[in-house]
Structure formats: structure tokens, C-alpha cells
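Q: I'm writing up a methods section and want to include an example of the input and output format. Could you take the sequence below and give the corresponding predicted C-alpha cells, formatted cleanly so I can copy it straight into the document?
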Amino acid sequence: MLANYTIVIVKSDKWYAGYVKELPGAHSQGKTIREVKQNLKEAIKMVLGSSRRHFFAGYDKVLEERIAVAV
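A: Here is the clean output for your methods example:
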């Protein structure tokens, strides 16, 4: 599954730093824009994975299915 997020990248002296607008806590840095983008992808995975595990820890899975939503 692919999801789209908005990233913001800024530059200081020798480093680039970035964050994901929709995900507080998803931020990173790197020496190149490409490196920051890759690091942000990893940060997104970490934020989504850890929050899901933390929130649902201790519960037994009852149902897993895909649902359709009209937007």
C-alpha cells in the first residue's frame, strides 16, 4: 500500500533537515536532499509502526479487512 505525505526540507550551512507535515515526530537530516528524503521515508515507517504497536499492544486481533470510503 502506498500513502502520500507532504515533506518540508530546509537547508542550514552544510546540512539539510526535513519533516513530514502530517506526522508529528517524523523528521530527519542529511547531507543531501536525496539522503533526507530517504531518511524521511524510514522515519515515516518508524512513526507509523511504533504508534500502531503502542496503541494496540495487549489486544487480540478480531478482524482485519479492507474497506472502501467515498471521498
